[in-house]
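Example (one chain per record):
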Amino acid sequence: MDLIERDGPGAVTMNGLATELGCSILSLFSVVPSRAALLDGVADAITAELGFTPMPDAPWQDQVRAHARILRQLARTRPHCTLVAVSRPGSAATRARPVESAFATLLAAGFVGDDAARIARALVAYAVGAPLTEAGTEETGRRQRRWAGQLPAVLELHDPDGDFEFGLDLIVRASTDLLAQRA
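Predicted structure:
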């Protein structure tokens, strides 16, 4: 996972990992049969770190907000590994648990299957994508400071937490409106 965070998932090869670990490639293959299995293991480990706490008495809106915040925090802490986790097929039980939890929350709120699945995917895409945008915005912010006074003031604002909460609120409000329309 450290190698993935340092060099990105594309840079991870079995030979490179064996070199990094100081072992032979044959020793590595005796522990993990392939690069795909290795990445699946990383996805499982990252997903296990999510630590969703059930909130059965909370409104569904608070529950999905909590899910998105936890996912965003993980994506901020381990961005490359989080991308591995969301890009791997979700067949493993470990990786399915957070999605099942969010999906169950939405179904219990009254959403039908397709709507619940689409909302869950939108929340995951937003929560994982926001930290990538934040990282890009920090670089953009450095460039913008060189152009100070040449950009509209609104583009110079940078509040990642406020921006995330604003976008999350938009998704939740749109979902609430959709639920009301479908009723």
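Caption: The mean pLDDT is 84.
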